[in-house]
Specification:
Layout lengths: L2 H10 L17 H5 L9 E7 L10 H14 L3 E5 L27 H5 L3 H32 L3 E4 L11 H8 L37 E3 L10 E6 L2 E7 L6 E8 L15 H21 L9 E5 L10 E4 L7 E2 L8 E4 L23 H7 L2 E6 L7 E5 L22 E5 L16 E8 L7 E6 H4 L32 H11 L1
Parallel strand pairs: 1-2, 2-3, 7-8, 8-12, 12-14
Antiparallel strand pairs: 1-15, 4-5, 5-6, 6-7, 9-11, 10-11, 13-14, 15-16
Length: 501
């Protein structure tokens, strides 16, 4: 393609962005005005994704500015945080931090763990209370702009959130303290399994009463919204058509795991994967209860933290010295890649190897076989690309009712989003971004997306906290990869230069 054609194609994929009208004090979210997630009379529905904010109790002012500007520019129906909101390694959590879920907290020594001293126990409990207060402070700063504008929001988790010393369930409980949070209350135990919200048997549901969905609280801004619950950070939200007669699509949030005992990153739980496979049919059972649809499934899009291995299908091998070549991560180490321009949209960029789990959990196969049309992940702060990989199945969908041709999906859209935060590594500060995903009722399974970059929305960052990590072509396959959380020192730069000699 010529540069002119690329520019025209990029412009065609950009949703129309209109600023909020001055003096309009209604919620910016149209769905919040309706009390449920629903396409507008204009035929549009908007999701704003915020990835990898990854900050401590004092959130960067530039991060907050990006959130505010993105909300005002896009007026989203809902905001989805896709993990690593909390920098669990921050010094504020020094007494409770855990490197791994199965390791002891920093404040618990082997002597303390075996001690019956109530004094030691009380000290640690006090440290946990301080951690809760710090996490609460982070969440409050992130969602205050949403509360001020009446926008609902949802959250899943990554590999750094729990490192503060709190479980995902505890962090989720803190999130629900704030207005607009749509994460469902757990039932039947910490994870919400086995109770009224359980989706263990959704594959054999006969009615919506068996579907495992609950009504959201009024504080969520969506009192008329139903949500399917599984585990902390794993749940699903149906989106209705303009007249609220049927579910057109589903938004599925998936806790994609944190670390694997064998090394590298982990995978979703077995329960979460079952939930993922069951959701499209579960949502249709709800719609059938309303009595408006006979379609067997509701097509869904999944939001999560880790990318799956199949993101490498959007890349192509390249020589190590090729322009913009990046070395792969762990299982893909030793090989270099560039974006496949035939599969990815203009404006996409690759800044680091796709940091996926070593093991294939089978998630991609579920997405292929169970009526999913898109996946959006974060985790890789320096990657921002959108592409489509082919899938070999027909999707029996509501799209058949809104288009002349059958609801056939030619591929699975795969989205990688860069960091929205200024508290850790990433691209240059001006390219920190939120991601807008806009659905159109005429072709709801072909959403348009664009990055909302700080430089375009706000201008020059005011703080010097953010930095762009100097990626190298070397990898450490025996570890979790390049340490991306610290600035390269002059000494490390010298050592890298000497190794190359």
């Amino acid at each position: 393609m010529t540069e002119l054609q690329n520019a025209a194609k990029a412009a065609a994929t950009r949703p129309r962005i209109q600023p909020a009208e001055e003096g309009d004090d209604r919620p910016l979210s149209v769905s919040a005005r309706l009390g449920r997630l629903q396409f507008h009379q204009s035929g549009k529905f908007r999701v704003l994704q915020l990835a990898d904010i990854q900050d401590g109790p004092k959130v960067s002012k530039d991060t907050v500015k990006l959130i505010e500007a993105s909300l005002d520019a896009t007026r989203p129906d809902i905001v989805i945080f896709t993990g690593n909101q909390i920098a669990g390694y921050d010094p504020a959590y020094a007494q409770t931090t855990r490197k791994r879920r199965w390791s002891a907290a920093a404040g618990i020594s082997s002597k303390t763990a075996s001690s019956k001293s109530s004094e030691a126990s009380e000290r640690f409990e006090a440290a946990l209370e301080r951690t809760c207060a710090s996490v609460r402070a982070t969440v409050e700063q992130l969602v205050r702009p949403l509360a001020d504008r009446g926008i609902p929001w949802a959250v899943t988790f990554g590999n750094h959130d729990f490192q503060c010393g709190l479980s995902n369930a505890e962090i989720e409980s803190i999130c629900r303290e704030f207005p607009g949070c749509v994460n469902p209350e757990p039932t039947g135990g910490e994870s919400g399994l086995g109770g009224a919200n359980s989706a263990n048997s959704v594959g054999s549901m006969d009615s919506a009463e068996d579907a495992g969905f609950v009504q959201l609280r009024a504080e969520s801004y969506l009192p008329n919204q139903r949500v399917f619950a599984c585990e902390p950070g794993t749940f699903a939200l149906p989106v209705a058509d303009v007249d609220h007669t049927m579910s057109v699509l589903g938004l599925v949030l998936l806790d994609s795991g944190d670390y694997a005992r064998s090394g590298g990153y982990g995978s979703p739980s077995a329960e979460a994967l079952r939930f993922l496979a069951d959701m499209p049919k579960a949502m249709r059972a709800q719609s059938q209860e309303i009595g408006r649809s006979q379609e067997p499934a509701v097509p869904c899009m999944v939001f999560q933290h880790f990318p799956v291995q199949q993101y490498y299908q959007l890349l192509k091998p390249a020589a190590a010295n090729a322009a913009r070549a990046i070395e792969g991560y762990r299982n893909f180490a030793g090989k270099h890649y560039v974006l496949d321009e035939e599969k990815t949209l203009p404006g996409s960029y690759l800044g680091e190897g796709v940091s996926c789990p070593d093991a294939d959990s089978g998630e991609f196969a579920i997405l292929e076989q169970h009526d999913y049309f898109a996946i959006s992940a974060g985790h890789d702060h320096r990657n921002a690309f959108v592409g489509t990989v082919p899938v070999s199945r027909e999707m029996a969908s509501a799209d058949a009712q809104t288009a002349a041709s059958p609801g056939k999906v030619g591929g699975l859209m795969m989205i990688a989003s860069p960091t929205s935060g200024f508290g850790s590594y990433g691209p240059v500060p001006q390219k920190r971004a939120a991601r807008l995903i806009e659905f159109d009722i005429r072709h709801p399974y072909e959403p348009r997306t664009q990055l909302l970059e700080y430089g375009e929305l706000v201008g020059k960052p005011s703080a010097g906290k953010a930095y762009a990590y100097g990626m190298t072509s070397e990898s450490k396959p025996e570890s979790e990869g390049v340490d991306l959380l610290h600035r390269p020192t002059w000494w490390s730069k010298l050592l890298t230069w000497l190794r190359k000699k």
